User: Fold Phosphoribulokinase from Coleofasciculus chthonoplastes PCC 7420.
Amino acid sequence: MTHRPIILGIVGDSAAGKTTLTRGIAQILGEDEVTILCTDDYHRYDRQQRAQKAISALHPDCNYLDIMQQHLGLLRTGQSILKPIYNHNTGTFEPPEYIQPRRFVIVEGLLGYSTRLARECFDVKAFLAPPESLRSEWKVKRDTRKRGYTDEQVLEQLRKREPDSEEFIRPQRKWSDIVISFYPPDELSDEQRDLMLNVRLVLRPTIPHPDFTRLLSPSKSHLSTAIRLELDRDMGKPVDVLEVDGHATEEQVRELERILCSEIPYLGKYCTLEGDPNIGKVTGTTGETLQSYPLALTQLLITYHMLKAAHIYQSSEPALT
Ligand SMILES: Nc1ncnc2c1ncn2[C@@H]1O[C@H](COP(=O)(O)OP(=O)(O)OP(=O)(O)O)[C@@H](O)[C@H]1O
Ligand SMILES: O=C(CO)[C@H](O)[C@H](O)COP(=O)(O)O
Assistant:
């Protein structure tokens, strides 16, 4: 007997950082405990057909969203699916794959929150929204190095897809519990910027976040040079905003980590930077390994929510047979 899987959604435009974040969280939770699903696999047309029809992969009509939401519903109740496979190297489809959900499922992709039934399947919903200039840099570097495109082809694709990004991808931000924006600090050179990205985390009151108000106490004022909590509005709705700067020190990061771990003691086992020095490591666009504290804390916050959801459901819901 086992309990239903806990499902995390990571949605955002192409090269917004979904795979990078997904891999980091899976590593913390334990790769044997996590099933990863990319919704690019639900594209309706292959690359050649998309070119002929002049439709972008970002358009809902270019994806089997009905089958995607059906599969999410099955995974949520612990059932297996036969998932299509889209191969980014060839631009074509491969034979489907049998997927059995593990304890945690991470679903990353372009259109995960675009239907109500799909949205209802997620326990935690994250949306990645880096500034467009950074996303474009990441996409050019990634697609030229890993997907065989030229700089001009990627820039042309970005330009052509912009109307669909605006109409179908960005509006999904409003359905997320956490909006994550990595962004470069203004004052640094291009090379330094990649190593020192800040993060802005918009925390909607749609799920109970850790009590970060402790950051506001006078005894924590030394943290404010790199870690800040503020009230703001996002798409008109009131939100908390947690900012972590890339120049935060290890000591400051550990204090924030203690706030996270103190609320749910079992979190400490999974996520301490001390226990796992790989948290927050990222392979840069040129293949180099970087460690980012803002990324580490983002991964820890999402892990917090996954474990909390698992804890709540394991103690309150009957096990699946
Ligand atoms: N937090 C980050 N810090 C530094 N670099 C990052 C970060 N997130 C992503 N990148 C860089 O941006 C590139 C694109 O990221 P990633 O592949 O994770 O995007 P994606 O949203 O999964 O893209 P797609 O949907 O097109 O597959 C990566 O190759 C990585 O080098
Ligand atoms: O936006 C994307 C998500 O990664 C891809 O570009 C989309 O899946 C289309 O793929 P391709 O570049 O292989 O035509």
